[in-house]
C-alpha cells in the first residue's frame, strides 16, 4: 500500500489516495476542527472496502465494489498518517478519533474488528476514540456481536458508534439506503446493550436532505434520549446527490426549528455543518476523490482542489 496522491489544506483536511500492488485504489482522510489545534482534536477517517455495494443515493463511494481491505492494509493507512505527524507513534492528542467511514460500509469487513481490537497495542494514544459509522445491514449480526465484545472489554467509555438513519420515514429511508438493514427496533435494542453508563451516547446520524422528515414522535417511540443523541448534517454536494436531486437548504431558521423541536423532546442534538471548504477538498462524508476523478464530472461547489502526485 503506497500513498500516491493527496489534496486539501493542512489546517482543515487532507485526502490521501493509496494504491495497492494489485492496482486497487482507496483513500484515507485526516481532518481538524478549526479553531481547535491538532493537539486538541485530530480525526483519521479510514476506508474499509474498495468501493461499496450499498449504493446510497448521495454517496460517491458507491457504484463499484472490488472487495475488502485486509487488516494489514487498513493498519498501513492509519500508520501512514500517525507516523507522518507523530513518528514515535505517541499521539498526545486529547481527542484522537479513528473513524471507519471513508469508503465502504465497515460491517461488511470483519478485518475492521481485528484493527479495532489492536489499536491500543499499536499506538500510545490516551485520547483514542474508535468510531464506527454504519447503516447496520441486515446480514451483519456476527460483526456487531463481536464489536460489542471488543467495546465492552477495551473501550467501555471511549467508543463512538453512529447509525446512519437520514430520515424517520421508512419508505424514504429504504430509497436512500437501498439494501436490507436493521429496523429502528433492532437498532434501539443493540444500542441499549452497547451503551455503558458514563460513556458516549449512541449517535443517530441524519444527513438531512430537503423533503426528508425527522419526526421526534417516531424517534421517542424507539430511542431513549438517555442513551441516544441526534446528529444532523447537510447532504454534501456529491455527484450522486446531484444526480438524485438531493440537497439541503442551509438556512438558520430551518435548522433552528428542527433542533429546537428535538431539544424539547429531550434529545441532545449536534448540528454539524462543518467547514464548507471540505466540500471543495472532497473530504466530507459521502465524497470520494478516486471515484470523482474517474468520472471527470464538474461540480461547482465541490471537488475543486487538484490532486497532487506524491513523491515516494
Description of the structure:
The chain has 312 residues and is an alpha/beta fold. It has a single domain, classed as TIM Barrel (Alpha-Beta Barrel), CATH 3.20.20.70. The protein has ten helices and 13 strands. The protein has an eleven-stranded mixed β-sheet. A two-stranded antiparallel ribbon has the order 5-6. α1 packs parallel to α2. The longest helix is centred in the first third of the chain and has 15 residues. 41% of the residues are buried.
User: Unreliable stretches, pLDDT < 50, 5 or more residues?
Assistant: none
Distance between the termini: 12 Å
Strand-and-helix sequence, N→C?
Answer: EEEEEEHEHEHEHHEHEHHEHHE
Tell me the strand order in the biggest sheet. 12-11-10-9-8-7-4-3-2-1-13
Q: How many DSSP helices?
A: 10
Helicity range of the residues? 25-40%
Which architecture per CATH? Answer: Alpha-Beta Barrel
> Compute the gyration radius: what is it?
18 Å
Strand content: 15-25%
Derived from helix and strand composition plus strand pairing, the structural class reads alpha/beta
For the record, what CATH class applies?
Alpha Beta
Count of spatially separate domains: 1
Question: Which fold name corresponds to the CATH topology?
Answer: TIM Barrel
